[in-house]
Amino acid sequence: MSRTAVMALMFVLALYFLLPLYFLIVAATKPQGDLAATNGLVFSHFQLFDNLRTLFTFDDGIFVRWILNTVVYAVLGAAVGTLISALCGYALAKFRFRGREFLFSVVLGGVLVPSTALALPLFLLFSQVGLVNTYLAVFLPSIVSPFGVYLARIFANAAVPQELIESARLDGAGEFRTFFSVSFKLMSPALVTIFLFQFVGIWNNFFLPMVMLQKESLFPITLGLFTWNGQTARSPLLQESVITGSLVSIVPVIVVFVLLQRFWRTGLAAGSLK
Fold it and tell me: Is residue 66 within 8 Å of 220, Cβ to Cβ?
């Protein structure tokens, strides 16, 4: 009975989380007139390809530019942020120096600070150096992840034996070579986790670009769709493009998760064996 109750609860939760996605898929296939005239959970006239064509050609294809911007922000920002987190976490875990625990406490404090609270101070700082309304205004804050540093340190402590590091040092390897040749591979499950957190966080980032950017050509998808949604009162046809664009925007996140989930399984299996 307990197993049945748990499975029933999981089924209800799955429906709860998948229902908005199903609604988004259904709405993206409808023409503009059917959005309010038909049931939101029932398909009507299938017009997905026409909606996609309108989405990618509207305003000289600005949506394509928003996709490219988001890919640059998310992929490059997540990759650089993961590398920085891995280096910092590894150093905090494997090197002993004065003030290490205090520095780690500061990192933990950074985890507790919401990113929205830092948007205004960052805007004031970036405006002083002339970086507002540039790619760097969104990219530079995205590569800093206190949670990534915390996770990298915890995993480095558990997954990288000190004996391996000492052996590499005895063989003449420097600290960077030891990290990239030995430790980096052992930390790969945690690094994939950090990358996914960073990627999803940057991909869904909205408040920071809204504060930093004014040029539409620099917008990510989230800010671009928000701008279109604010114009639906004057141009109702944009509503369908906003819905279709929202569906398109979640596809890369799903693809990245599916491609990288095997590394999570590897990390879980390694942990169970240990």
Answer: yes
CA distance to 90, 157, 196, 200, 224, per residue, from 82 (Å): 12, 17, 9, 13, 26
Give the three-state DSSP class for 220. Answer: coil
- Indicate the pTM of the whole model: 0.86
Q: Measured between alpha carbons, how far is 245 from 223 in angstroms, rounded to an integer?
A: 12
Q: Strand, coil or helix: what is 253?
A: helix
Place of tokens 């003449």: 172
Comparing CA positions, the residue from 129, 161, 194 lying closest to residue 270 is: 161
Burial status of residue 232 (CB atoms within 10 A of its CB: 0-12, 13-18, 19 or more): middle
Burial classification of residue 130, based on how many CB atoms lie within 10 Å of its CB (0-12 exposed, 13-18 middle, 19 or more buried): exposed
For the cut 80, the answer to whether the pLDDT of residue 216 exceeds it is yes
How far is residue 136's CA from residue 213's CA, in Å, rounded to a whole number?
Answer: 10
Rounded to the nearest 5 percent, the helix, strand and coil shares of the chain are 80, 0, 20
Residue pair 216/62 in contact by the 8 Å Cβ criterion = yes
**Where is pLDDT greater, at 35 or 251?**
251
pLDDT at residue 203, rounded to an integer: 93
What does residue 96 show for φ and ψ, rounded to 5 degrees? -105, 125
**pLDDT level of residue 273 (50, 70, 90 thresholds):** very low
CB atoms within 10 A of CB 51: 23
Please state the rounded mean pLDDT for residues 50-58.
Answer: 90
What is the rounded average pLDDT of the residues 235-250? 89
Burial tier of 39 (Cβ tally within 10 Å: 0-12, 13-18, 19+): exposed
Contact call for residues 58 and 129 (beta carbons, < 8 A): no
d(CA 144, CA 128): 20
